[in-house]
Structure formats: structure tokens, C-alpha cells
Amino acid sequence: MHRLMHISFHFPGVPKVRDLEPVISAIGDDWIRYSVTSWILWTDKPAIEIYNRIRPHLDKDDQVLIIKMEMGEGFGWLSPWIWTWINSKVPGMVTTGEDLDKLLLAPPPPTPPPWGRK
How many CA atoms lie within 13 A of 4 on its CB side? Predict the structure, then answer.
């Protein structure tokens, strides 16, 4: 069963984007990279298999996190094309566009008066 997997890296040196792009392309059916070190992959592979394919391309000081994306709770601010891509894989997974703007523009709750003030 296909799912969205989030993969993020930390490289103490130069990011290995050129080396990793063909590896990630071979793992999933589709992917996006929304920052230099963050990818979202559409794949049927479990996290351990993704890791096993990526690991030979990492040095001992590199770090990687691979996690299945499930939107029980989540929030973020990304370009609209990224939300569109995510929703093309898992319809209704994230709130986008006007709904997101309404959430962000909602007035804050009223602030109670400071203690000891009348």
C-alpha cells in the first residue's frame, strides 16, 4: 500500500542532494523536495527499506529521519504546489488555500486583565 514518507537529512558538510536524488527516485513512484534536506516520497516501501537503500550514500556524521506521514494532527506553511501534490496522493490529507487562511486570520482569544488591576 502506497503512503507518504517524510525523509529529512542533516549534513555537517555540503548536502548530498545530487547523490541522493537518483536513489530516492528509485525507491518511490513520485517525490518532492521542498527544501535542500527535506523530501516527501510516495512509495510502498517501509521506512527500514528506504533507510537501507539510502545508508550507503551517507557518511558517519550524516543524519537521516524517515517517518510515515499521517495527518491526525499537523500544520505547516508551504507553497501551494506542495499542498496540491500531497492532496493528489492522499485527498483531503491537509487543509489548503482559503481554509488555511481562515485558520491563520482568526482573532486571538481575549486577553484577561493583568492580576491586581481593576
Answer: 20
